Amino acid sequence: MLNGKSILLIVGGGIAAFKALDLVRRLRERGAAVTPVLTGAGAEFVTPLSLSALAGQQVYRDLFDLTAEAEMGHIELSRASDMVVVAPATADLMGKMAGGLADDLASTLLLATDKRVLIAPAMNVRMWDHPATRRNAERLRADGILFAGPTDGNMACGEYGPGRMAEPLEIVSAIETALGQGPLTGRHVLVTSGPTHEPIDPVRYIANRSSGAQGTAIAAALRDLGAQVTFVTGPAVVPAPAGVDVVPVETARQMLAAVEAADPADAAIFAAAVADWHVTEASHQKIKKGANGLPELGFAENPDILAAVSQRDRGRPSLVVGFAAETEKVVEHATAKRARKGCDWLLANDVSPGTGIMGGAENKVHLVTADGVEDWPRMDKNAVAARLAAKIAEALG
Ligand code: CTP
Description:
Number of domains: 2
Number of strands: 21
Strand content: 15-25%
CATH superfamily of the largest domain: CoaB-like
Structural class: alpha/beta
Strand order of the largest sheet: 12-11-8-13-16-17-19-20
Distance between the termini: 22 Å
Helix content: 25-40%
CATH architecture of the largest domain: 3-Layer(aba) Sandwich
Bound molecules: cytidine-5'-triphosphate
CATH topology of the largest domain: Rossmann fold
Number of helices: 14
């Protein structure tokens, strides 16, 4: 069921657009609200009137429609729904998405959204098999876009093969899966990620080499199991995943405030590489070289966010997971760190430059719990995230 969910449905051009009308009906039968967007090419195949009548809502068509913009701006429109679905997704729309183009309402919404996007491609078999479309599909998958179909079948153009749009009910079921009827549905999970930047003056800061890749992968994996994820992130290199509530911060003190504002959570995962210190008297003006010799920086310790949450008397998440970035005696240090901080689980990794872990695509972790240490093999950060998310789901029951 999709009760209470809202879907922004972009209808592209193509003979399969007629199936989008049935898709609207099926979605509404399941309790979803549907906001339709019709591309110029789409309007050649279905009328705005039929789409609007079935959806029970106004159809959005034009990026520069002032009335529609006044009612709801296109950025807001791109974010107001729980999910964006493109059906049919033409080769042209896929190309625009893969290239990041935004020259009409549909492509602009797709570029501006912070929600999960699912596409149901529909095109001639040759077009689907073309190296350009293959490349675009691969790019979109890597960007986290979900696909329903295409399937094999007889096509309106008389050819047979892949390129046929998935049936409305198949698309509905892909939407239901993506909207996460998973083991963590109804759970709120907090994830911190990325480095922090601690200012020295308005143009300089102290940072670390964290890319945010592991925290981002964990947030995405928890989302995929149905969790509502609050993602508190420092200035990371890796973009935040779609479909999570992103809270961008810069300093450790801001991160603590954001974590406190996100309460209550069922579980909290602290993957951020938080700076241990901040500069006590960060200058409001750029520090100039010369006259006063070398600058002297004073430091104060940052709040330990993981320890603060782990040691709460009230409102402690039932599962608190920390990370330990170590460069030597990894398990020994991590075991002591788990006890010192008071968290339930600690994932220890060796971040010595030779391992390529900090800022890299892979990780090798040791999971330290009250029951002992589990050594996980070296694997892709997404695989570490999936394994951790499954374990969290099991622990929360
Ligand atoms: N952490 C935190 N707040 C801080 C420092 C660290 O929440 N001010 C969290 C990190 O997100 C991580 C864990 O604590 O989950 C351990 O971080 P790490 O940098 O390995 O440890 P430190 O506490 O900094 O200890 P040390 O510098 O002694 O290694």
